[in-house]
């Protein structure tokens, strides 16, 4: 959990963002959560009434702080999406909790912030055709499942083929990579996929889940990207989106580097790259 405050501090200290750029969210309202999640599950998180099996599946001990933090993170993604629509690019220094399903959470994901943001934006007519580019090493099963029958939401997941989750509902496009995939293969695969996707789908808004767990040093990733490869990945995605003049939302998603410092530095690459490409 310390990576979130560590990243915020690092981005300020390195002048990548400024204090005036930061907008602290309020907790998302329950009505918005329930555009994706069931009343039963939402009440279970808010009131702490999940059963033991549900708590184990979530992977996090329930507390009121967890419930509050989860609602703040969702609203942070909604805010970032609205700001991206106005300014071209924005980010949430959290978010990307793509494993959460409508009636349960799993894989350290309480609510699916991207799915809730998409539903809120679509219902409010802020955007209709939305793309999710998910480069976390774990497939975005929750997002894929939620939008599996919605042709106006394109979900693309580039992940480790043999990694969690073991049941992978189909995204609009899934590319599973073998263990040990290195920079060149990864980056070529990503670039070719994005070229093809943007030929067939014209989004109003893109969410980018820039998980750092494809790094070779990651505890659970099983791929073999270098830090330079990770930064090149971020550049490929950000450059592609802004070249099409589409608003972009940056989200952290997962990452388990060997130390807190290395985790923060890896997550910061996405924001640093965005700043460089926009200047």
From TrEMBL:
<dbReference type="InterPro" id="IPR044150">
    <property type="entry name" value="HDAC_classIV"/>
</dbReference>
<dbReference type="Pfam" id="PF00850">
    <property type="entry name" value="Hist_deacetyl"/>
</dbReference>
<dbReference type="InterPro" id="IPR023801">
    <property type="entry name" value="His_deacetylse_dom"/>
</dbReference>
<dbReference type="InterPro" id="IPR023696">
    <property type="entry name" value="Ureohydrolase_dom_sf"/>
</dbReference>
<protein>
    <submittedName>
        <fullName>Histone deacetylase</fullName>
    </submittedName>
</protein>
<comment type="similarity">
    <text>Belongs to the histone deacetylase family.</text>
</comment>
<dbReference type="InterPro" id="IPR000286">
    <property type="entry name" value="HDACs"/>
</dbReference>
<dbReference type="InterPro" id="IPR037138">
    <property type="entry name" value="His_deacetylse_dom_sf"/>
</dbReference>
<keyword id="KW-0378">Hydrolase</keyword>
<feature type="domain" description="Histone deacetylase">
    <location>
        <begin position="6"/>
        <end position="263"/>
    </location>
</feature>
């Amino acid at each position: 959990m310390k990576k979130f405050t560590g990243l915020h501090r690092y981005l300020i200290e390195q002048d990548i963002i400024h204090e005036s750029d930061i907008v602290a969210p309020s907790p998302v309202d329950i009505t918005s959560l329930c555009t994706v999640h069931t009343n039963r599950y939402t009440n279970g998180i808010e009131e702490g009434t999940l059963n033991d099996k549900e708590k184990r599946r979530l992977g996090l001990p329930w507390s009121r702080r967890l419930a509050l933090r989860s609602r703040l993170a969702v609203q942070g993604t909604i805010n970032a999406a609205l700001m991206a629509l106005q300014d071209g690019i924005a980010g949430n220094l959290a978010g990307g909790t793509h494993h959460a399903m409508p009636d349960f959470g799993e894989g350290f994901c309480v609510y699916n912030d991207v799915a809730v943001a998409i539903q809120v934006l679509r219902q409010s007519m802020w955007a209709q055709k939305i793309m999710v580019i998910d480069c976390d090493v774990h497939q975005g099963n929750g997002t894929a499942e939620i939008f599996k029958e919605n042709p106006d939401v394109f979900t693309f997941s580039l992940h480790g083929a043999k990694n969690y989750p073991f049941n992978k509902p189909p995204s609009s496009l899934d590319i599973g990579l073998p263990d040990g995939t290195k920079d060149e293969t990864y980056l070529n695969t990503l670039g070719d996929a994005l070229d093809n996707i943007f030929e067939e789908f014209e989004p109003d808004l893109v969410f980018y889940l820039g998980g750092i767990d494809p790094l070779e040093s990651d505890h659970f990733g099983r791929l073999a990207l270098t830090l330079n490869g990770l930064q090149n990945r971020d550049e490929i995605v950000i450059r592609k989106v802004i070249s099409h003049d589409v608003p972009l939302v940056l989200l952290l998603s997962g990452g388990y580097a060997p130390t807190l410092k290395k985790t923060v530095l890896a997550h910061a690459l996405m924001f640093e790259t965005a700043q460089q490409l926009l200047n």
